[in-house]
Amino acid sequence: MKVIVIGAGTGGLCLAQGLKRSGIEVAVYERDRTRSDGLQGYRVGIDPDGSRALHACLPKELYDTFVATCARAPRYGNIYTERLKEVLSVDSGPVSADPVDSEKSVSRMTMRQVLLTGLEDEVRFGKVFARYSHGADGRVTAHFEDGTTDTADLLVAADGSNSRVRRQYLPHAGLEDSGLVGVTGKLPLTGETRTLLPPKAIEGVSMIFAPGGYSCILHVMEFKWDQRGELKNGIGGDDAELLAAWPGLTFDNTRDYIMWGFAGARRNLPSEVLSMSGPQLHRMVRELTGRWHPNLRELVAKTDPTTCFPLNIRTSVPIPQWDTTNVTLLGDAIHTMTPGRGVGANTALRDAAILRRELVAVRDGEKPLLAAVRAYETRMIDYGFDAVVKSRRQMSGDDPLHRPVIGRIMLAGMRTAMRAVNHLPPLKRRMAKAQASYRGAGRDDF
Ligand SMILES: Cc1cc2nc3c(=O)[nH]c(=O)nc-3n(C[C@H](O)[C@H](O)[C@H](O)COP(=O)(O)OP(=O)(O)OC[C@H]3O[C@@H](n4cnc5c(N)ncnc54)[C@H](O)[C@@H]3O)c2cc1C
Question: How far is residue 60 CA from its own chain's centroid?
Answer without folding.
Answer: 22
